[in-house]
Amino acid sequence: LAYAWMRQEPPVHHLALPWQAMLALVTTAFCWGWPAVAGIMAISWGGLTRIGEALSALRSQLVLPKDVEYTADYVLLQINEPKTRFRAARHQVAKVDQRQLVTVIELAFQHLKPHQRLWPFSGQTMRARFQKLLDASGLSSLPKNLSRGIDLGSLRAGGASWLMMVSEDVELTRRRGRWLTSEVLEIYVQEVSSLQFLPNLPGPTKLLIIAGASIFPWILSIVANFRHAQIPEIAWPFLIMSEAVEHEQNGSKIEEDVGGFGHISGRNGCVNHPLHLERKWGRSSSLDMLIDNIE
User: Fold this and answer.
1) The pTM is what?
2) Is 254:218 a contact under the CB 8 Å cutoff?
């Protein structure tokens, strides 16, 4: 009876969020002054965590390079109550070692005190803000051939698919995602659908995603300056808009490179998968997108 039901109602898995869309969402979150949203997405996508594990974590569970005097260049998240605690280790650890995502997490949470939660709001607030990011990026309504839409569960699936593609190491991906068997891992890894995601998007949405990913390093450097100057997050959208308008008026060119997005460490050493997105923007769609999406 159960098999007959599965044939009539086949399971639908989370759609894997590709790295280009991930960077575009993080860029928009920073533009809107939502660093905690960007940090949670970076942990879940880069560390292959379940979204609830990231939302419920305290700052004391997060180990940043600064916490160990920069003797490590990766981020660790201690997970006290993992889903598989009765079948595997009761205490598990998620690791993020992609250098740009490490920077995103540092900018989002480095200033918190040990007893503070990484996400101080409700899960519904995170879902609502994530949906707003999807709306702004044109990802809220996808073509039917892309199966179900993107949700917070797409972060873990996207990170697992990316890690499998750049490392080609099933055991490394299984360990990082803390799956008990490779069979369970295969449910999350969607290499083909991840590669086909961008080509199947409408033209304007595709350009929006690529533009957002292209200005990600520029936004990252600006946000780092904001943190260093202790500028309140509520002022970020206005200051970023001012920077963007200045570039528009001056017609200056921004060369953005997402090279190095893909540095991971595994048992076979380091795997470098440079995903170069180099463009020289004058009066660019990137800056137009940045200005239009700031609320």
Assistant:
1) 0.81
2) yes
